[in-house]
Amino acid sequence: MNAILCPAVSGPCDPPGVYRTLLESTKAIPWRIDWSTMQFTYIGPQIEALLGWSPASWLSVNDWAERMHPEDRQKTVDFCVAQSQQGVDHEADYRALTRDGDYVWIRDVVHVVRKPDGSVEALVGFMFDITERKQAEDKILQLQRDLEALSYRDSLTGIANRRMFDTMYPVEWAKAQATGEPLSLVMIDIDYFKQYNDRYGHVQGDACLRRVAAVLDTCASRSRDLCARFGGEEFVLLLPATDAEAARGVAERCRKLLRNEAITHASSGAGRTVTISMGAATIVPGSHDDAAVFLDRVDRRLYQAKSAGRDQVCDSEA
Length: 318
Description:
By secondary structure, the protein is of the alpha+beta class.
């Protein structure tokens, strides 16, 4: 690369003749920095079309560093200096400041030129505009994030799904073990939901599920609380740092808010509107406790509530 930039010439130079024509006809922007002075000895005129800064304004590596996004500057400079000192060719991506105050993504491809004794003589390289590529990569990353978020969301109700609960439950269990804070679970089932579907149809049944989910989700009001659809007409509330009294309060609030919704259910055996049955339990998990066993305990309490007549909370063993 140095032979192309400075053929048969030693020391600082400006590429002559045909080499200049070749270099300056590409979109890639060539440059050369003298290692001993850290001064630019050449930079292609294409730099002005890309960034707005004239070639004459690129005097030293300080100009290069100062025309870099503040978030990229330190790590990029440190990386390039370290690689250059070791004589290692390298690449660096960063946002470069334009004269108009915007930023352009640049990829610098750097080659280290050595003297006969092995010491560094110069750095030569090319700058490439990779803004469009970065924008495309950002779109792909955002799509991946969106898809991941969708994979943890129940498509019908819009709240978290079973996968999200299965992911967060062991995390909160481990936190509760480490901190000694109580962890509460509330399992929820819509009463006589099969009869609701039979009477009103599955379209109305889906609408009912969405309304119930929205009510329950408002009760998981803190940042770490989680309301998830557990399956079918069952839901679960994961309530970290919540004692038994507070957990029952959350459950009763769910019943009250749903009662206020007054969703007609003429085929219910528990009233004339849609109701829910709930099982609740609280634990400060120790090293010998098992998260699956605790979940099963909460589930048994849910079915105690259903066996006792529905539309109620069971938070103790029968």
